[in-house]
């Protein structure tokens, strides 16, 4: 028996249709949501992601602004670009595409973003709000995972969830989101220091593989009928390879394809964050 597909492409398309209607309403209210991206350097994968995000914007009627800086940009240049977007009324939300070149500090760059325009939910104020159970813009990938699972009729409530990976963009915030009352999952956050990973994953109803190690979660590590979410994006011989081994499809009940699972959902949630931010702007104007 082969697992059912958690279809990120179809789910993202449904979300985009909902967002298109909300963007229409906003335009009627005189607000055009605008997403900006700050890309530092010329990494081809990052250029590709940014290109896809702008194409998505076009599909739902969000305006988009592309800011590009050279790989050797100074901290002052990055700061100037970010301050410019904070002040630009055409930009209602934006992201600094990660990673940025090593001579620049990622947390420093994120901290310069106006928290009200933080489309990635990675500003320390928004991460702090998440920890404090206050309304916050949420990071796109964790939000996409929660939504993808929920829209396939799978309940997070009471589920035993094992997240593999403690990164700032996925694992750590996902643990915080899933343990809120509204999701009510029980989460075990595993990482490279975990003594016996299989001991944890075998007990999980839902396994989220977000370690960035190709094929690291195999069928022998999961329970029959588990739900498996693949967040990994590694390049092997020019092909995208996830963190799930292919044999999980023979044992799990539900699996995210990769590509075609979490990636498109991440992009849909970025759009969703931008629309949310623009609606908040209208509400604050009264
Ligand atoms: N500030 C910031 N925010 C991010 O959200 C962010 C980032 N930096 N840096 C890099 C990662 C990676 N990421 C992906 C988004 C979509 C796909 C995606 O849509 N992938 C397609 C395939 C893409 C292809 O054809 O290569 C899929 O999975 O089907 C993948 C990866 C967002 N990230």
UniProtKB/TrEMBL annotation:
UniProt catalytic activity: (6R)-5,10-methenyltetrahydrofolate + H2O = (6R)-10-formyltetrahydrofolate + H(+); (6R)-5,10-methylene-5,6,7,8-tetrahydrofolate + NADP(+) = (6R)-5,10-methenyltetrahydrofolate + NADPH
Domain Tetrahydrofolate dehydrogenase/cyclohydrolase catalytic: from-to ranges: 6-120
Keyword hit for Transmembrane: no
One GO CC annotation: cytosol
Keyword Oxidoreductase: yes
Subunit structure, interactors included: Homodimer.
Assigned protein family: Belongs to the tetrahydrofolate dehydrogenase/cyclohydrolase family.
Protein name: Bifunctional protein FolD
Organism: Propioniciclava sinopodophylli
